[in-house]
Amino acid sequence: MMKRKLGLVAAATAALVVLAGCSATPPADEGGKDITLWVMGGDTPDALRDYLKTEYASATGGTLTIEQQDWSDALSKLTTALPDPENTPDVVEIGNTWSPTFTSVGAFSDITDLVPELGGDKLLPSFVEIGKVDGANYALPYYFGSRYMFYRKDVWAAAGLEVPTTLSEFSAAAAKLKTDTQSGFYIGGEDWRNGISWIFANGGDLAKKDGDTWKSTLSDPKTIAGLEQLQALYADASLAPVTEADSTPWVNINNNAATGAPEAATIIAPGWAHWSIGDLAPDPKDDTKTIATWNDNVFGTFVLPGVDGGAAPVFAGGSNIAISAASKNQSASRELMKIIFSADYQKMLGQNGLGPANLDYADSLGDDQFAKALVASAADSKLTPAAPGWAAVEGSGLLEEFFGKVNGGGDIKALAAEYDTKIDALING
Amino acid sequence: MSTIAPRRGIRAPYVLIVPAVVILLAGMGYPLIWQFVTSMQEYGLAQQFGKPAPFVGFDNFVTLATDPVLWTVVARSLAFCVLTAAVTLAVGTLLALLMTVVTKTARLILQIALLLAWSMPVVAAMTVWIWLFDRRRGVVNYLLDMIPGVEMNRFDWLSTPLTFFAVASIIVIWMSVPFVAFSIYAGLTQVSDEVLEAAQLDGATGFQRFRHIIAPLIRPVIAIVLLLQLIWDLRVFTQITMLQDAGSKSGDYDLLGTYIYKLGTSSQDFGMASAVSILVLAITIALSWFYIRSLLKEDEA
Amino acid sequence: MTARTRRGLFSALAIIVALAWVFPVYWMVNSAFLPNIILQSFIPTFFPVKATLSNFTGALADGSFFSALGMSVAITLTVVVFCLLFAFLAAIAISRFRFRGRRSFVIAVLIVQMLPAEGLFIAQYKMVASVGLLDSVLGVSVIYIAAVVPFTIWMLRGFVAGIPADLEEAAMVDGLSRFGAFMRITFPLLAPGLVASGVYAFLQAWNEFTVALVLLPSEAAQTLPLWLRGFVQASATRETDWGQVMAASTLVAVPVIIFFLIVQGRLTSGLVAGAVKG
Questions:
Q1: Residues A411, A337 contacting (CB under 8 angstroms)
Q2: How does pLDDT run across B248-269, given as a tens digit for each residue?
Q3: Which residues of C touch B16 (CB under 8 A)?
Q4: A368/chain B closest Cα distance in angstroms
């Protein structure tokens, strides 16, 4: 038996040695032409994917494989595949707020030298900044979106209200519009991605860099001021559950089929939500589906106003894109980046309602009210802190927890102090 | 229990267990060792990308043991697990017994219903259940609201921990009962009719027959089924994650499975996540120790 | 109360329980046939009045269902067959023989299944990637079999233990070989246990999601749960189409239901038990 056991131990050890050998080592560029691009979710339309494949084939003669990853599963796939030279995607789209985390551990290749060719200082600055480490560029913007307000003109007019020009005007109007069955402004209690706009508007931040370390700044007086405003707004204007986070708010602004009235007079939503907002009617092409047709008499948009007028900074959604450091096909990957940042592709992004990375092509978004609201809100938009541990903070659910407790009527100062400590433990990675 | 005493062919049992041992080593060996090693390291995303992982001894465990949040989650998980497993076993046993006393058609209908429920993919089942409990479009609120004097329209089941875990428990029970009922029923079919008839002739009541004849015979099955329910319910994961997606991601709604996942995948602290996993292993062993011992004792007897 | 009325009452109870249990399944199928326009309403629709197949055609449109089906079937069959075989042999060993190391083996098997799986995926990935088996049936199957085998051994051990070895001995006295006695006497008695464990292994392999996600990274290799998940995820520019989700769920459930209907005779009818008892 003893011999048998020893044999097993030896076999296990041998296996471990083999496995240990497969950890990340910087690969040599083997100059392969067939590469893989990971895109997140279905945001990149099929036409754009086909364009990339065709252009890539004619530019390099190689094959581009595009694989779609779901947002909620992406972290575990990125964590396992990116360090593995044999299986890493060559180019990856990542959520903009994840960029610092992956960039700081060396997941991506330094492409500083390529930046001027890809658009240089025309590229959306906040996204470029979040993909930088020590002055070198690793992840660049892919596309951006932004959030603005959708409101029911009919409901607002019936209450004698006009589009607000300051944040406190907005709060007052929203409170006035609340009834037992209708939210003046529909926002979930745990919806921190929209809720942080009130912090930003008051000049606050979620975290600041102090020397070499990041510190959570929920207890900062400006942040507290924003949270107090949000807490009051939620209590006075929203009927949404305190446990609700970022969801599908447009179902509330459209007429409810059962009552014929909307459940919310105002919502905040990403720009693309306008496709889902409007008068509901059966789709003439397929009567099993309802389609919403935008009606300018009933629906309108405005940009969340700032404390002293103007636009409040909102959270900028969107993605960054980078080359995997473990990829064996570095030069081919750089070719793909050139295609993505080409004028043609940037314009195609804009035509599909995605904010192009290169702001020179922002006019490709069109000039309707949605394009204008997108550009106006994006101009002042802000990102989450570029801290190495930010992805961990988001993943931990602490922000949902904190905003939920604030909007649930908790003591803001005590909660802020408590969650500052919790976030500080994660934010530096 | 009767076994064949050791004799010349002593090699036979080793040959018989070789395939199982090999597949266990191949599939679980390395992950298990990795888990133990990592639980004593500082292992985050940087280590995953090739940075050496510093050995920290039992630091991760010390951090855990002194974290009140962990113990809240442990207590919550234990309560959830014991309650859910007990109800599952009780309902499962009753349904298995019910199958033995009904007409053939009724038995078939019940069995097919359970099979259908059992065959539902977890993702699909969760989607349907979340719909059923939806505060606005849910059938549950719709039906409850029809009862005079009950005002359940818009009642949000997922917005307080108590109702959240009640819903979770109902769903888990619904999913687990078919397996328990069928396993126990399969055990019951092994009980010989002749013995039961003989007992009936001797004047034994239904309960006596269950207690003295049926129960001892199906005890191995019940024991293992209960043990498994305890193990599974302690680390229930998919159901809680999907309910959290529909409700709240706040830590108040975490059980051990989601706690580990948040710590590991979401927060990229794999050292700590491994330490919690080891801790869960220890808790499970402690929880089932009595069981394992009695199983072993029975085995040796 | 006569035995007859009692049986009738119990039967009625069984049918009520059956209806309650099957309701969520019914709801899935009902919703799969309902047009989206009705699903969006706040008032539930209990019967598929304006039934449509559009949810199904939509879900099947890009053909990826069939490749995922192929992958799932291959993995599931591999897991069921090898898992039952390995577990069956081991169950015989621990319930019919005494041998040195038996106790350690029993304890190891028990404890292995107590480890939470949520933290293991990095190690599983490294292991499978290092031998080049990502995106393969074999890679995932090895992990699945290892995860399911301990339970199956325990389950079968319970059944083997329930069969008196004297029966075999008696048959051997009657002149059957050891193997013959086993096949003629023990094996048929084990059938319900084998079917129950097989069903369990089947469902685990069919429904598993998190390991498959990491070990089958490419789209061409995805299994049905991964395929189904693709419908549930709303993307930034597209809403979740719930009718399609329910149709896709129904499609994933159908092969399981077919499998169950095939084995249910074995699992439930008196055939097996009757053959022995009679």
A1: no
A2: 888 899 999 999 888 888 888 8
A3: 89-90, 92-93, 97
A4: 34
Tell me, what's the pLDDT at A5?
47
pLDDT in tens, A184-203: 999 999 999 999 999 999 99
Arithmetic mean of pLDDT over chain B: 86
Tokens representing residue B105 in the block: 């058609």
ipTM, interface predicted TM-score of the complex: 0.85
pLDDT band at A379 (very low <50, low <70, confident <90, very high): confident
CB A108 within 8 A of CB A81: no
Higher pLDDT, C75 or A384: C75
Query: CATH says A146-315+396-424 is which class?
Result: alpha beta
Minimal Cβ distance to C11: which of B103, B118, B295: B103
Mutate which of A34, A143, A289 to test chain C, going by most C C-beta atoms within 10 A?
A289
CATH class name, domain A8-145+317-379: alpha beta
Query: Measured on CA atoms in the order C29, C32, C38, C42, is the torsion positive or negative?
Result: positive
CB B189 within 8 A of CB C270: yes
The answer, yes or no, to whether residue B7 has pLDDT greater than 60, is no
DSSP string, A313-368: --BPEEEEEEEBTT-S-HHHHHHHHHHHTSHHHHHHHHHTTPEESBGGGGGGG-SS
Confidence of residue A28 (pLDDT cuts 50, 70, 90): low
Same fold, A8-145+317-379 and A146-315+396-424: yes
**Domain residue limits, chain A:** 8-145+317-379, 146-315+396-424
Please name the residue of chain C whose CA is at the shortest distance from the CA of residue B110.
C18
The residue whose two tokens read 């919703």 is C31
Identify each DSSP E strand in chain B by its residue range: none
pLDDT tens-digit readout, B184-226: 887 787 777 777 778 777 877 777 877 887 888 778 778 878 8
For the residues of C199-256, what is the DSSP string, one character each?
HHHHHHHHH--HHHHHH--SGGG--HHHHHHHHHPPBTTB---HHHHHHHHHHHHHHH
Contacts for B251 with CB less than 8 Å, ≥ 6 apart? A397, A398, A401, B69, B73, B259, B262
Q: What is the pLDDT of residue C229?
A: 81
Specify the pLDDT at position A27: 52
Three-state SS sequence of A75-124: HHHHHHHCCCCCCCCCEEEEEHHHHHHHHHCCCECCCHHHHHHHCHHHEC
Q: Measured on CA atoms in the order C177, C181, C184, C186, is the torsion positive or negative?
A: negative
Nearest of A223, A187, A188 to residue A205 by alpha carbon: A223
Count of domains for chain B: 1
Whether the predicted pLDDT of B18 surpasses 80: yes
How far from the centroid of its chain's Cα atoms is residue B22's Cα?
A: 26
- End-to-end Cα separation, chain C, in angstroms: 29
Tell me which residue range forms the domain holding B215. Answer: 54-61+68-300
Residue A269 has pLDDT above 50, yes or no: yes
Q: Confirm whether B33 is domain-assigned.
A: no
The whole-angstrom separation of Cα C240 and Cα C31 is 14
Q: Is B27's Cβ below 8 Å from some Cβ in C?
A: yes
Rounded distance between C-alpha atoms, residue A180 and residue A178, angstroms: 7
Domains and CATH numbers, chain C: 3-54 (no CATH), 64-230 (1.10.3720.10)
Tokens of A417: 């102090």
As separate numbers, helices (DSSP H) first and strands (DSSP E) second, chain B gives: 15, 0
Name chain B's partners: 3 or more CB pairs within 8 A.
A, C
CA distance B78 to B282: 13
Dihedral, CA of residue B171, residue B174, residue B179 and residue B185, to nearest 10: 160
Confidence class of residue A2 from pLDDT cuts 50, 70 and 90?
very low
C120 touches chain A (CB under 8 A): no
CA A386 to CA B46: how far, in whole Å? Answer: 16
